[in-house]
Specification:
By secondary structure, the protein is of the alpha/beta class. Helices cover about 35% and strands about 10% of the residues. It contains 24 helices and 17 strands. The strands form four sheets. A seven-stranded mixed beta sheet has the order 5-4-17-16-15-6-7, with helices on both faces. Strands 10-9-8-11-12 form a five-stranded parallel beta sheet. Strands 1-2-3 form a three-stranded antiparallel beta sheet. Helix 9 links the parallel strand 6 and strand 7.
C-alpha cells in the first residue's frame, strides 16, 4: 500500500495499529505485492485499507466476543528517540488467558459449545497439522526441536496403509505428519499413527542378542548367536521345526522366512497371525473371485451409493476408512450396519441389523432371498459372469424371512429393507473385518458376502465389491508372499507337482510336497513334542493364541526356541535365544495394505 509519498509503501502496525505478528506478516505480503505491481507498471496499486476492528469482526450470533486485553505502547516522546519495540508485552497471566481463545476473531468458545470429549474428538491430530498459525504444536517438537530430515514411510498399525512423513532429529522421531500424497489416507491419520510411534525410541527396545544360560538371559555377539541358532536348527529334521512369520514385518522379510523354512529347513510348517484373523478371507475370496484381497480401492468407498458394513467397527479399528464411510453418508450414501454391538457407525446408519452373534450367514442369506424373490438380482451379470446360480437359488429355499428372523433376532422388515437398499442403490460396497472371520464358519461368512455382491452385480466396478479390512499392517502381504503352510508365494499350492518343480528349479533344492501345520496345529504339535524347535519372527503366541495357558506350556516343551522381536515379549521370555529386530522405521521394505 503506497503512502502519500510516491514510491514509499507501508504496512503492519503503521496501518492497523498494534496487532499480532501473523497480521503483520500478512500486511507485509500485501505491501510487497503492491510494490511488485508498482515496479511492473501494472496499473492501479491502490488497496482499500480496512480498519482492524472490521477485519476481525465476528458475525453476530450467540457466541460472545471479547476484545483482546490492552497492550501498552511506549509514549511517542520516548519511542521517537530510539528503535525499541513500540508495542510492549502482556504479563504471563494475561498471555495465558488470551491463549485460551482465537487471537484473530476474539471469540471465546469451545468447539460446538462442547468439550473435546463431548464433541467426539478422535484426537487424530488433523487440527494440529492444518493449523495455519502454529497455535497448535505437538509437544514433541517444542523447545527448539527442529528436524534434520523427513522420511516417507507407511504406518505400522492397521491394514489401511497410511503414508506418513517421519520428521527426525538425531535419529529420533520428533513428529509424524500424514502425507497428503498418500493414496490410502490423503493427508489423514488416526491417533495411533499420529501420536503412537514413540515406541521406536523406547529404552526397553532389544539392542543385542540374548542367550538363556542357567535360566537367565546374557548378551552375546552376533557371530556367536548365529552359529548357535544355525547349529541347533540344523540338528532337527524338517517337520520337527516350525517357523512363524509376522504380519508386522515387510513383504521382503516374509518372503525370506518362508524360503528359509522350505528351502533350508525342509518344511512347510510356516504360518502367521492370519490364521486367527483373515485366513477365512483368503479361503473364501480365492474360491469366489480367485484372489484373497480387496476388490476395490479405499478411495472408492467415499463414492459408493450404499454401504454394507458387517463385522467391522470401522471408525475404531480402521479410522481413516471410517472417515471414507462417513464422507459417503454425508454425500447421500445409505449405510447398513450389521453388528451385534452398537458401534459408532450406527449413528450414521439408515438401518442397523442387530443380529445375534454367529448368525451372519443366515442374515446374508435372508437378504439374498429377498433380492431373488423381488427380482432385484442383476440377471445380466449373473448370466455373463457367474456359475452355479440354479444351485445357489435352491439353497435359499430354507431362508424365508420368518425363519431368518427367528435365527438372527432381526425383524423381517429390517432385513427386507436392507436388501432393497443394497440391491437398488448402486454402486454398493461391502466392508467386513474380523467380526465375521474369527468364527468356525468364517469362510462361509466371507463367501456369503461374495455371493451377495455377485447376485447384485456389485463386482468389478468402481465403488463396489467385497473389501476385507485387515487387522495388522501387512496381513495381505504376508499371505501374498507365501507365509502360509499350504501355498508358495502367490497362493500357488505346495501339492501341485508342476508348481513345486518351478520353485525347486528357482531355489535349487528339493521341496516337501506335504502341506505344513497351521499356527494352532503347531502349538498342539509342540505340546505333544512332535515339534521340537521353532523360530518366531515378530509374533507373540504366548499372548495372542487361544488358551494361552496351553500355548505357553507347549512352547516351554520345545527343545529349542528362537524369538526375533523388538521387545522382550511374553514369548521371548520363554525363548532360548532372543534376536533384536529392526522396527518399521529402521529398515527398507514394503507393506501391502488391506
Amino acid at each position: 500500500m503506497m503512502t502519500s509519498r510516491e514510491g514509499v509503501f507501508s504496512g503492519g502496525d503503521c496501518i492497523s495499529g498494534p496487532a499480532s505478528v501473523i497480521e503483520a506478516i500478512a500486511s507485509a505480503r500485501r505491501a510487497a505485492e503492491a510494490i511488485d505491481r508498482y515496479l511492473g507498471g501494472k496499473g492501479d496499486i491502490a488497496e482499500s485499507l480496512v480498519p482492524a476492528e472490521e477485519a476481525t469482526a465476528w458475525p453476530e450470533g450467540d457466541i460472545p466476543q471479547e476484545k483482546l486485553a490492552a497492550i501498552s505502547c511506549l509514549p511517542p516522546e520516548v519511542s521517537i528517540k530510539g528503535f525499541d519495540e513500540v508495542e510492549q508485552a502482556w504479563d504471563r497471566e494475561t498471555a495465558v488467558a488470551e491463549a485460551q481463545r482465537c487471537l484473530r476473531c476474539y471469540v471465546i468458545a469451545p468447539i460446538e459449545e462442547k468439550t473435546l470429549e463431548e464433541a467426539d474428538c478422535q484426537f487424530c491430530g488433523a487440527c494440529v497439522d492444518s493449523c495455519p498459525a502454529g497455535a497448535l504444536v505437538e509437544r514433541s517438537i517444542c523447545q527448539d526441536k527442529t528436524p534434520n530430515c523427513a522420511v516417507t514411510t507407511i504406518c505400522p498399525y492397521c491394514g489401511v496403509g497410511c503414508q506418513l512423513k517421519l520428521e527426525v532429529k538425531d535419529d529420533k522421531i520428533i513428529r509424524v505428519v500424514p502425507d497428503p500424497e498418500g493414496p490410502a489416507n490423503r493427508g489423514q491419520a488416526c491417533v495411533k499413527g499420529k501420536f503412537g510411534l514413540d515406541f521406536v525410541s523406547d529404552p526397553n527396545r532389544l539392542t543385542e542378542p540374548l542367550v538363556k544360560r542357567h535360566g537367565k538371559f546374557v548378551p552375546v555377539t552376533w557371530d556367536e548367536v548365529l552359529d548357535l541358532v544355525a547349529g541347533k536348527l540344523a540338528g532337527h529334521k524338517g517337520d520337527e521345526v516350525a517357523v512363524v512369520s509376522s504380519a508386522k514385518c515387510t513383504n521382503e522379510e516374509n518372503y525370506l522366512i518362508q524360503k528359509l523354512a522350505r528351502a533350508v529347513l525342509g518344511t512347510n510348517n510356516v504360518d502367521h497371525c492370519a490364521r486367527l484373523c483373515h485366513a477365512p478371507t483368503v479361503a473364501g475370496l480365492v474360491q469366489s473371485f480367485g484372489s484373497g484381497a480387496m476388490t476395490n480401492s479405499i478411495s472408492e468407498i467415499g463414492d459408493a451409493r450404499s454401504i454394507l458394513a458387517i463385522g467391522t467397527n470401522t471408525t475404531s479399528a480402521h479410522p481413516v476408512i471410517g472417515l471414507e464411510v462417513i464422507k459417503a453418508v454425508r454425500k447421500g450414501a445409505r449405510l447398513i450396519v450389521a453388528n451385534p454391538r452398537e458401534i459408532d457407525l450406527c449413528r450414521y446408519a439408515e438401518i442397523w441389523l442387530r443380529h445375534w452373534p454367529g448368525t451372519d450367514v443366515a442374515l446374508l442369506m435372508g437378504m439374498m432371498r429377498v433380492i431373488v424373490d423381488e427380482n432385484l438380482a442383476d440377471s445380466a451379470f449373473i448370466a455373463e459372469r457367474c456359475e452355479g446360480f440354479d444351485d445357489f437359488k435352491q439353497s435359499l429355499e430354507n431362508f424365508d424371512l420368518a425363519t431368518v428372523e427367528r435365527i438372527t433376532g432381526v425383524p423381517a422388515e429390517k432385513i427386507a429393507a436392507a436388501a432393497r437398499i443394497y440391491a437398488g442403490d448402486k454402486p454398493s460396497t461391502i466392508l467386513y473385518a474380523m467380526g465375521i472371520t474369527q468364527h468356525s464358519h468364517g469362510t462361509d461368512n466371507v463367501m456369503a458376502t461374495a455371493n451377495l455382491a455377485m447376485l447384485t452385480g456389485n463386482v468389478g466396478k468402481p465403488s463396489t465389491g467385497v473389501n476385507p479390512l485387515r487387522g495388522q499392517n501387512n496381513v495381505q502381504g504376508a499371505c501374498d508372499l507365501g507365509a502360509l503352510p499350504n501355498v508358495y508365494p502367490g497362493y500357488q499350492s505346495v501339492t501341485i507337482p508342476a508348481i513345486r518343480e518351478k520353485f525347486e528349479a528357482a531355489w535349487g533344492v528339493s521341496l516337501s510336497p506335504k502341506p505344513g501345520l497351521t499356527l494352532t496345529e503347531m502349538v498342539d504339535a509342540a505340546y505333544q513334542k512332535k515339534i521340537k524347535a521353532a523360530y518366531f519372527m515378530g509374533e507373540n503366541p504366548s499372548l495372542s493364541e487361544p488358551d494361552i495357558g496351553h500355548a505357553r506350556e507347549a512352547l516351554a516343551r520345545l527343545d529349542f526356541l528362537v524369538v526375533q522381536d523388538i521387545f522382550l515379549t511374553e514369548t521371548a521370555e520363554l525363548a532360548d535365544v532372543v534376536l533384536p529386530a529392526a522396527s518399521f522405521a529402521e529398515k527398507d521394505g514394503t507393506f501391502t495394505n488391506t
